[in-house]
Amino acid sequence: MSYYEFGTCPYNPDHRIMLFRMPGHIVKCQKNYRGPPLQICKYNATHRVLDMEEHLKECTYYRNFIDSQAMQIALTMRKAPILDDGSDTNTEL
């Protein structure tokens, strides 16, 4: 039983590769590929697809990027809460 995750080679669907070896495999397999040109996903370079728009609808790496970007924007736009405890912080003693 293997503890590694496997993926399918984008250039040859008969190839099942351990994900940590996929980048090296893609370089070798791309040299023998004779099909239509595949686009490279900018969120995970091991994703090679024909239709990038369709791919981005399902790409978890794209979703994670968008979620982290939204979080960063939300944090930079956040204003400090206004404390209304009845005391005036500007009073002098």
What does this protein look like?
- The protein is α+β, with helices and mostly antiparallel strands and 93 residues long.
- It has one domain (6-76).
- It has three helices and four strands.
- The protein has helices spanning 22-32, 52-58, 60-77, and strands at 6-8, 16-18, 39-40, 48-49.
- The strands form two sheets. Strands 1-2 form a two-stranded antiparallel ribbon. A two-stranded antiparallel ribbon has the order 3-4.
- It is elongated, with a radius of gyration of 24 Å.
- The protein starts with 5 loop residues before the first strand and ends in a 16-residue tail after the last helix.
- The relative contact order is 0.10.
- The mean pLDDT is 86.
- GO terms for molecular function: zinc ion binding.
- It holds the Pfam family zf-U11-48K.
- This is CHHC U11-48K-type domain-containing protein.
- InterPro entries: TRM13/UPF0224_CHHC_Znf_dom (IPR022776), Znf_C2H2_sf (IPR036236).
- Residues 6-33 form the CHHC U11-48K-type domain.
Question: Top keywords for this entry?
Answer:
4 strands; 93 residues; two-stranded antiparallel ribbon; elongated; alpha+beta
Strand tally is 4
The largest sheet is: 2 strands, antiparallel
Estimate the global geometry from the Cα principal axes. elongated
- Mean pLDDT level: 86
The share of residues in extended strands comes to: 5-15%
Q: How many discrete domains?
A: 1
Order of helices and strands: EEHEEHH
The radius of gyration computed from the alpha-carbon positions, rounded to a whole number of angstroms, is 24 Å
The helix count comes to 3
User: What strand line-up does the widest sheet have?
Assistant: 1-2
